[in-house]
Design a protein that fits this description.
OB fold (Dihydrolipoamide Acetyltransferase, E2P); 2 domains; ligase; 430 residues; alpha+beta; Asp/Asn-tRNA-synth_IIb; catalytic activity, acting on a protein; BirA Bifunctional Protein, domain 2
Length: 430
């Protein structure tokens, strides 16, 4: 019976064949331990010299790291293994012998590992991160389907920018100039006016010359948009969504969290509702923590967000930012026109902002005024203005950055490990 590692529990005390790679091995004179992986998981294969023909044991001892194999043996329980099972190997068929595999069990530098990202993905830690990323993606589709959202795909090539063109990649679109999208939000607003509740899930690009552990040049965003929805209602969707994906990982990825050494107790505390503080209160909190030079009207950087997060065990919403440091489309607070109805969700443990959202301006005259203030006049934004001209309604939305969220849930330090092939300021290879 041919199977995969993640299915071996169905074949207890039965003989099966698995196509696998040799991740590592150790051996003594009479027994060899093979660490096998097949993409679905990792299992130890044990081969005793006394139980197999001599040529099989000789083959096992001579196997090289990352050689590909068909391994046949009996599945047994193993309480010492985090996986819970091992294989008593009876037969090995070598498919391809790998020679001089560059990533050995010793320590390697980050640049070396990034140069070999195509191979580094095979390691147990990177495998665990990708499994958790995949679970978050699955949970995202499940949550928004459950809540009645429709998946919509905005364009990646655009003729305009959601928040200005200074950090965009320019490209030539035949006779016109175009940009790689930094957000699908404007198009999602149009979709919401047609379909009610929608979300997108796709790649976005920022030509931001940043080298911090929180930044990628290419990353994935989940961007829901909701018609007939207030800012407060949007915040409730956000916290329910984050709680849902954390719970999904806790339910389905215990082995991977253990592999990463992630504190499950901290994740179990992520339950809605989340605490909320205004930008004004955040300024006060920062000054209490020694950031005496922070002035009202300045945006928060990574040290500020980390300091604020230290006061909470759950993600925290910072609401009502000054209008002048936020995007043109954000709706002013009706009781105070120098701040907008927006919120950033700051993850615990120093992982920074994972969600940015707001109520959107729905008044045509106010949006026309914003166009003038932000020099957005012209045909490129005409269609967006028309959303306020033909049946405008209150609406709100947000964007969650997948890689920062994966980094936080996994407890890994740098977002470069949370995407299969990261694009960084000085990295376009592999």
């Amino acid at each position: 019976m041919k199977t995969t590692i993640n299915q071996v529990s169905k074949y207890l005390d039965q003989e099966v064949t698995i196509g696998a790679w040799l991740a590592n091995k150790r051996s003594s004179g009479k027994i060899a331990f093979l660490q096998l992986r097949d993409g679905t998981g990792f299992i130890q294969g044990v081969i005793a010299k006394a139980d197999v023909p001599e040529e099989i044991f000789t083959t096992a001892k001579s196997l090289t790291q990352e050689s590909s194999l068909y391994v046949t043996g009996t599945i047994v329980k193993d309480t010492r293994s985090p996986f819970g099972y091992e294989m008593q190997v009876k037969k090995i068929e070598v498919i391809h012998e790998a020679k001089d595999y560059p990533i050995t069990p010793k320590e390697h530098g980050t640049e070396f590992l990034m140069d070999h990202r195509h191979l580094w993905l095979r390691s147990k830690k990177q495998h665990a991160i990708m499994k958790i990323r995949n679970q978050i993606i699955q949970a995202t589709y499940q949550f928004f389907a459950k809540e009645g959202f429709m998946k919509i795909d905005p364009p990646i090539l655009t003729g305009s920018a959601a928040e200005g063109t200074t950090e965009l990649f320019h490209t030539q679109y035949f006779e016109e100039e175009a940009y790689l999208s930094q957000s699908g939000q404007l198009y999602m607003e149009a979709a919401a006016m047609a379909l009610g509740k929608v979300f997108s899930f796709g790649p976005t690009f920022r030509a931001e010359k940043s080298k911090t552990r929180r930044h990628l040049i290419e990353f994935w965003m989940i961007e829901p948009e909701m018609a007939f929805t207030t800012h407060e209602e949007s915040l409730e969707v956000q916290e329910q969504y984050v709680q849902y994906i954390v719970e999904s990982v806790l339910q389905n990825c215990q082995l991977e969290l253990n592999t990463l050494g992630r504190s499950v107790e901290k994740l179990e505390k992520i339950k809605a509702p989340f605490p909320r503080i205004t930008y004004d209160k955040a300024i006060e909190l920062l000054r209490e923590k020694g950031f005496n030079d922070i002035k009202w009207g300045e945006d928060f950087g990574a040290p500020h967000e980390t300091a604020i997060a230290e006061s909470f065990e759950k993600p925290v919403f910072i609401t009502h930012y000054p209008k002048d440091i936020k995007a043109f489309y954000m709706k002013p607070d009706p009781e105070r026109d120098d701040v907008v109805l927006c919120a950033d969700l700051i993850a615990p443990e120093g992982y920074g902002e994972i969600i940015g959202g707001s109520a959107r301006i729905d008044d045509l005259s106010l949006m026309e005024q914003r166009y003038i203030e932000h020099n957005l006049a012209g045909d490129a934004y005409k269609w967006y203005l028309e959303l306020r001209k033909y049946g405008s309604v209150p609406h709100a939305g947000f964007g969650l950055g997948l890689e920062r969220t994966v980094a936080w849930i996994c407890g890994v330090e740098h977002v470069r490990e949370t995407i299969p092939f990261p694009r960084l300021l000085n990295r376009l290879y592999p």
